[in-house]
Amino acid sequence: MFARRRSGVHRTAIVSPKNIARRTTMRASALPRPTEPLPNTLTTGRHSTLGHTGCPTLRAPIGSHPRVSTAAKPTPTTSRAGSTSSARSTTLRSSSVANKTIAAPTARTSNMARAVPVSSRLPSEVASLKSEITKLKEELKTRVEQIKLTNEVLEMQKTNLTHSNAQLENAKIKLDLVENCKITLEEQLKVLKVNMQQKTAHNEEMCQQLNEKEATLRKLHNDVVDMRGQIRVAVRVRPMLKAEEESSNDGIEYPAVNAIAINQGTKKGTTLMFEKVFTPLFSQKDVFVNIEDFILSALHGYNVGLIAFGQTGSGKTHTMRGGDAEEEEGIIPRAATFLFRESKKLEATGWKFEFSLSFLEIYNNEAYDLLNNHAAVKLRLVNQTVTLDGLSDHPLAKQSEIGSLLRTADKNRKTAATKCNEYSSRSHAIYMWKIKAHQQATGISTSSMLKLVDLAGSERAKESGVIGQQFKEMTNINQSLSVLQKCISLQKSKSQHVPYRDSKLTQVLMDCLGAGNSKTMVVVNINPCNDQATESKRSIEFASKMRETHIGSAVQQRDLY
């Protein structure tokens, strides 16, 4: 039952002793029984009131529930005996205490949980909380360090950003400078283009004038060569050999720089004039310097032939081929060096050159290829032009390639020892350079031929003492040289028929002897010994006839397209 008071009168619930006992039992079973004495207010800092010693229930904090005034206490509704009234009074007090003790935790459970002291917790829970606190502290420390690092990175990025901004400003300034420079350079480029166009036009004009002057110079050069004689003749007297030191050599006189006379004993010889007389004091280099302008005509597009003539042992092969040492090189290897050097100079005026080389041998009136295992070569004569079928042609891109070709030709050429000459050539050797030239500016193209001829020496059977195969070789050599002299003599007399077909040698050399279109020079070699005076005299007399032979002016060999 409840006693109600209206108009603000305090209401108090009357709880039976049975309910009080039941609630007290439920609360006691819900809370664990402490194994240790409960703390007092001095150790916990919190005031607590215990119902009795060992009671697990803590009194609610002061102020959590309002106190019940004595005026609000209920009055009995029924009249009972004194003992009964006393019992009810006791019951009401117990109910009031229980109500105050049990109602407190149900009203504010959270406040009671906070009021539980730490020492009442389990050791494992305390250790877990401490571990969590430690982890939280470490995590907090890590976060603080991360924040510091992040701040440092931010500061660094700020610094970099400031630096980048400064660089950007500098770049903008430089860009402005570049733009200004670009404008300036474009203006200068326009001026340079105008100047270059003017200079290009001027250079074209100068090149045209240079080509005209170069053509005039070529013509003048070849006119000078023609004025000296279409067949130019020079005489070379070789030095005495060690084996000839006991022989006398005072039979040769040199009245002038271009004159020679051969005396026979007390009989004075006739003085003969030539383009040049090379005394024994002239070196290989000196000889070539005096004929290089003649060889230069081959680069200008003219056919050129240079022939070494003389008796056996007079030094023809030494003049043409020379020795292995550089200072002993003859006309053939020096001509190769000269052609490559001069062609490089002419390339400055727009000329381009191509060279190729062939070596032909005429042995016993038959033609062979000295650069192709001594293979036979067939000669065909068609309309005053000789065709050499089977002769190999070897292009030359650089000067160093000539050496191996010369050695191959020397190895294949026929030589033998005689009484007159230990290394007597038993054949005629003809070195043929094919030269192609083209100048793009003028469109001029030429194809010319340079023939360098080392003839076998004339000899007599009685003096040379040859027999057998060597006698046959001597006969063919003398016969071919005789036909050569005959052709030159008939050419000098302007005969209607010149027998070039009578010998393979004259067929190959017919363009050099007047039937073709060539500039020709003959170097007559002389033996200085007095006992060879007769043969030497015959040689220079024949050379004098060749010098008087007119073969006509050479014409530049231009290609027609």
Automatic annotation (TrEMBL):
Gene3D superfamilies: Kinesin motor domain
Residues in coiled coil: 126-230
Compositional bias of kind Polar residues: 38-51
Gene Ontology BP annotations: microtubule-based movement
Record-listed ATP binding positions: 310-317
Compartments it resides in: Cytoplasm, Cytoskeleton
Stretches assigned to the Kinesin motor domain: 230-549
Region feature (Disordered): 27-108
Biased composition (Low complexity): 75-98
Keyword ATP-binding: yes
InterPro entries xrefs: Kinesin-like_fam, Kinesin_motor_CS, Kinesin_motor_dom, Kinesin_motor_dom_sf, P-loop_NTPase
Protein name per the record: Kinesin-like protein
Gene Ontology molecular function, alphabetical: ATP binding; microtubule binding; microtubule motor activity
Family according to the record: Belongs to the TRAFAC class myosin-kinesin ATPase superfamily. Kinesin family.
Assigned GO CC terms: microtubule
Upper taxonomic lineage: Eukaryota, Metazoa, Ecdysozoa, Nematoda, Chromadorea
Keywords carried by this UniProt record: ATP-binding, Coiled coil, Cytoplasm, Cytoskeleton, Microtubule, Motor protein, Nucleotide-binding
Domain of life the protein comes from: Eukaryota
Native species: Caenorhabditis remanei (Caenorhabditis vulgaris)
Pfam families: Kinesin (PF00225)
Protein's UniProt keywords contain Transcription regulation: no
